[in-house]
UniProtKB/TrEMBL annotation:
This is Uncharacterized protein. It comes from the Bacteria. The chain crosses the membrane at residues 20-37. Keywords: Membrane, Transmembrane, Transmembrane helix. Residues 51-73 are annotated as: Disordered. Residues 60-73 have a biased composition (Low complexity).
Length: 73
């Protein structure tokens, strides 16, 4: 018990520490970030990443490929 008393006297009374309010603010921010990340994951799972091929791009590519295959002359 005497060791705890000596440790308490070593603490500088002029030193500013965050205290309980700082811990509460940090905990609320951590919970907010956790909730935002959970929401983001839920929204990202709903997104479909499959792309539908553009029919205009297919016809344009085949015309260019046919034009490049034919010798000019």
């Amino acid at each position: 018990m005497t060791q705890l008393v000596t440790l308490a006297k070593e603490v500088d009374e002029d030193k500013v520490t965050p205290g309980v309010l700082g811990f509460i603010v940090f905990a609320v921010m951590a919970l907010a970030v956790w909730g935002l990340m959970k929401s983001m994951n839920r929204h990202m799972n709903r997104v479909e990443f499959t792309e539908v091929p553009d029919p205009k791009a297919d016809s344009g590519d085949s015309a260019e490929a046919a034009g490049a295959a034919k010798p000019q002359g």
